[in-house]
């Protein structure tokens, strides 16, 4: 029996990178995994490999969230774990960030998490329990000026998590935040072209190496499982000591 055996878990932005690692680990630990993303080809391939399900899902769209949750309800009748992982990171300072870029980042990183909490909690109420895990960033603990929009939204995720944790606690729904550090993912290399991620991570992380997606996935499994049943509103940095 796995640590999350029998639980139904939805991972947004689960087609690649950290999200794919979360999907793999939760599947290995016995969960029925639903992967959602806009990267259909990668998402379908991963779902087939894991015997999971893939849904096309725009996290910044209210109607897309409602459709996704209705599909989960119809096929599984419940939702036990929601990982709000989908996000974008575009390197741009204050002068380079226009309203369109800021609004796009807010729609995915902030509105997407809000909608996930809102609709995820509605489905979790049916079983009076569940775990919502929001992926923030160390930029919400140690701000990065070259990512004005990204940093702003990741700080907002902290507030969303705490407020939702208090509101949903009487229903047995836990809401926690993970703050990944320097993790070797496509999002990082896409954001900073030409970056030697391994060298950069080793040089800037007290533990002396870059993080890998499975480092974060281990924390996901813990917060998704009953092992963390008395933890809500918490903030967990998975950063190799960067914010220490």
TrEMBL record:
Domain of life, per UniProt, equals Bacteria
Keywords recorded for this protein, A-Z: Lipid metabolism, NAD, Oxidoreductase, Steroid metabolism
Pfam families assigned: adh_short_C2
What GO biological process, any one, is recorded here?
steroid metabolic process
The GO terms describing molecular function are:
D-xylose 1-dehydrogenase (NAD+) activity
Broad class of enzyme this protein falls into: oxidoreductase
Q: What is this protein called?
A: D-xylose 1-dehydrogenase
- Tell me which family the UniProt entry assigns to this protein: Belongs to the short-chain dehydrogenases/reductases (SDR) family.
Question: What is the source species?
Answer: Phenylobacterium montanum
- Per the record's keyword annotation, is Nucleotide-binding included, yes or no? no
Look up the signal peptide feature and give its range. Answer: none
Give the Enzyme Commission number: 1.1.1.175
């Amino acid at each position: 029996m796995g640590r999350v055996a029998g639980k139904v878990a939805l991972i947004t932005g689960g087609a690649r990178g950290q999200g794919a690692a979360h999907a793999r680990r939760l599947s290995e630990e016995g969960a029925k995994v639903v992967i959602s993303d806009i990267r259909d080809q990668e998402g379908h391939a991963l779902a087939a490999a894991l015997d999971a399900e893939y849904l096309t899902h725009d996290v910044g769209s209210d109607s897309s969230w409602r459709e996704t949750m209705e599909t989960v309800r119809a096929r599984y009748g419940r939702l036990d774990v929601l990982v709000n992982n989908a996000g974008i990171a575009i390197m741009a300072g204050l002068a380079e960030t226009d309203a369109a870029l800021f609004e796009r980042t807010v729609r995915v990183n902030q509105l997407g998490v809000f909608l996930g909490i809102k609709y995820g909690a509605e489905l979790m109420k049916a079983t009076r329990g569940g775990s919502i895990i929001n992926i923030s960033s160390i930029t919400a603990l140690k701000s990065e000026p070259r990512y004005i929009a990204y940093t702003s939204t990741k700080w907002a995720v902290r507030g969303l998590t705490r407020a939702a944790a208090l509101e949903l606690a009487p229903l047995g729904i836990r809401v926690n935040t993970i703050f990944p550090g320097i993790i070797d993912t496509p999002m990082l290399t896409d954001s900073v072209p030409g970056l030697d991620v391994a060298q950069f991570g080793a040089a800037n992380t007290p533990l002396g190496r870059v993080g890998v997606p499975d480092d974060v996935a281990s924390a996901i499994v813990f917060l998704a499982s009953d092992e963390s049943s008395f933890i809500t509103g918490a903030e967990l940095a998975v950063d190799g000591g960067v914010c220490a």
